[in-house]
Amino acid sequence: xxxxxxxxxxxxxxxxxxxxxxxxxxxxxxxxxxxxxxxxxxxxxxxxxxxxxxxxxxxxxxxxxxxxxxxxxxxxxxxxxxxxxxxxxxxxxxxxxxxxxxxxxxxxxxxxxxxxxxxxxxxxxxxxxxxxxxxxxxxxxxxxxxxxxxxxxxxxxxxxxxxxxxxxxxxxxxxxxxxxxxxxxxxxxxxxxxxxxxxxxxxxxxxxxxxxxxxxxxxxxxxxxxxxxxxxxxxxxxxxxxxxxxxxxxxxxxxxxxxxxxxxxxxxxxxxxxxxx
Length: 277
What we know:
By secondary structure, the protein is an all-alpha fold. It is built from 9 helices and 2 strands; from the N terminus they run H-H-H-H-H-H-H-H-E-E-H. Strands 1-2 form a two-stranded antiparallel sheet. Helix 2 (about 45-55) crosses helix 7 (about 160-170), helix 2 packs parallel to helix 9 and helix 8 packs antiparallel against helix 9 (about 220-245). The protein is globular and about 90 Å long. The model is unreliable at about 1-15 and about 250-255 (pLDDT under 50).
């Protein structure tokens, strides 16, 4: 199953989601990058990473997220109103700009979906992670090809997406720190627990094939429930940080000098005889 936003009913003032051709283009682009850097992730991982950025407490810009996803993790230094420096993994500035364009359009579509009030969510405009039932795809291959692939660990439904989401959480821990409010902290923990559950393998009894309804079962009912819980968690996490707003850095007051210390004003007198009087 390859859930995309290409056929969704348009949300007012929202950019279109990526269509099938653009998703294929992204896959090819990432494959090109992978030819020069093996650690480049699959698009499903990128989509989970992107969703976590949308849900993050603080807006995180491309100068931070692009090198974390496709580079060495070091924040790109860029002056205001200037283009981003070219990451070494890209063959050209045009290739980097195209990736950012597609990535940004998917970001905006995800944000619009996650910001919909409960009463306005429908099957057509709801949030759909970019995932694929890889095990079902492999099961549909000829036996010889399938045997070659089955030697490797094949990810479960949503597993790579959830790993991408948690990769972003782990690399911006200050934006995912538990708030002081106990109810909000519980809300956060339950949401992240639902995402983490999806990072685990599907060990339940397969009951459905999401790639071919007539093919062998590859996904368990338990996994489908976990997948639904992860989608609900994305809504909840987005709403939580939107309601709380950005973190406020506390300003620490400098400690006052002791009564018999020299006064900090520079008068030469003891504090108790000067400003502390």
